[in-house]
From TrEMBL, chains A, B:
Domain HTH marR-type, first and last residues per copy: 16-148
PANTHER family: TRANSCRIPTIONAL REGULATOR, MARR (PTHR42756), TRANSCRIPTIONAL REPRESSOR OF EMRAB OPERON (PTHR42756:SF1)
Biased composition regions of type Low complexity, renumbered to the chain: 152-168
Alphabetized InterPro entries for the sequence: ArsR-like_HTH, HTH_MarR-typ, Tscrpt_reg_MarR-type_CS, WH-like_DNA-bd_sf, WH_DNA-bd_sf
Disordered, as annotated region: 148-168
Gene3D superfamilies associated with the record: Winged helix-like DNA-binding domain superfamily/Winged helix DNA-binding domain
Keywords: DNA-binding, Transcription, Transcription regulation
One Pfam assignment: MarR
Protein name as catalogued: MarR family transcriptional regulator
GO terms, molecular function: DNA binding; DNA-binding transcription factor activity
Length: 168, 168
DNA sequence: GAATAATAGTTAGCCGGCTAATGCTAGGTC
DNA sequence: GACCTAGCATTAGCCGGCTAACTATTATTC
């Protein structure tokens, strides 16, 4: 019964895998657990983030949500369409600005706040169950720095290259 | 130009976000960078893992690949179908066992080893560019432990519960 | 005021991930 | 040999993520 079916592609251990292999692995595991917990209340794996933002500010424009979620507009549009179809949110065009769509919670959506908050706490607990508070802080710090390195698109400025305008 | 549009749902900082929020964030950033680098050779974001396994053992059964990649059979089937269509791999039924499909590299697939290895190295370098070697080892260790906590499905054994046989 | 630019959303289509349901092959058991 | 079980792979369909291309509205600029 070969234990631990090896990590993606590196050796078998897990410890000796590259960080580039560990990140997708831990992310998938985390997403799977989140998904199975959220299924209890009828949500799919990423939908809690939308609701969490709406619990803090109910009528929010779709563009604002898109920015805060750090996703692309089409991704947000599809997610919101599903959440609307599921009855957790409502969408209506703004009267003040005909371009913006305002997203607000329905009663069902509001009712999820307590259970989802509980699930989110449980998830965080299981995620960090093997870490001391100091290690958790360390991990947070390391992940933050890695995120910054990954989003600092490209080389940090080789003298001679005419500062590319950050794509797009 | 509002810097750092906030992390998913927690505060604005990044440092003070929950680990459950940081994991998806860092994973998305990592995947996006990987995808843009791999696009250079005509690969999509997860396909390098398949090829990496095949470079180590070219005719490999689909079931083996599925297990090593730690994904579900349908996911593997679709990925392999695309890789086959793209001309990087070939699939044929095993003569010895009519159930198994053997996956092998084509010349195009084999030709990707050098460039993808280079890309993979660059990706890892940018991922860890802000970390000392000690911090990298620390991060690897922490991520490994978190992965184990996340995959150790459910409670770690409340005395009295008759050790559930790992679900499914 | 008309032309242009910037913003906001949508649609189509692709990729990776999953579950549920189906089919097919190989191994056991009686 | 017939039956049942286990293992391998596929199809259909959903979810989150993306790019490219498009529409519609508001804001600028001349």
């Amino acid at each position: 019964m070969t234990r631990s079916t090896s990590t993606s592609v590196d050796g078998g251990g897990l410890e000796d895998a590259s960080i580039s292999s560990l990140i997708p692995t831990v992310s998938k595991a985390h997403r799977n657990l989140a998904g199975s917990l959220l299924a209890e209340v009828g949500l799919a794996a990423g939908q809690q983030f939308v609701l969490m933002l709406l619990w803090k500010a109910s009528p929010t424009s779709q563009a604002d949500l898109t920015r805060q979620l750090m996703i692309e507009p089409p991704t947000a549009a599809k997610m919101l369409a599903r959440l609307e179809k599921a009855g957790f949110i409502e969408r209506r065009r703004s009267a003040a600005d005909g371009r913006v769509v305002l997203v607000s919670l329905t009663e069902s959506g509001r009712a999820l706040e307590a259970p989802v908050t509980s699930i989110w706490t449980r998830l965080e607990e299981q995620t960090t169950s093997d870490l001391t508070p100091a290690e958790q802080a360390q991990l947070r710090h390391l992940l933050s720095r890695v995120t910054r390195s990954l989003t600092a698109d490209g080389d940090p400025g080789p003298p001679g290259a005419a500062a590319r305008p950050a794509a797009r």
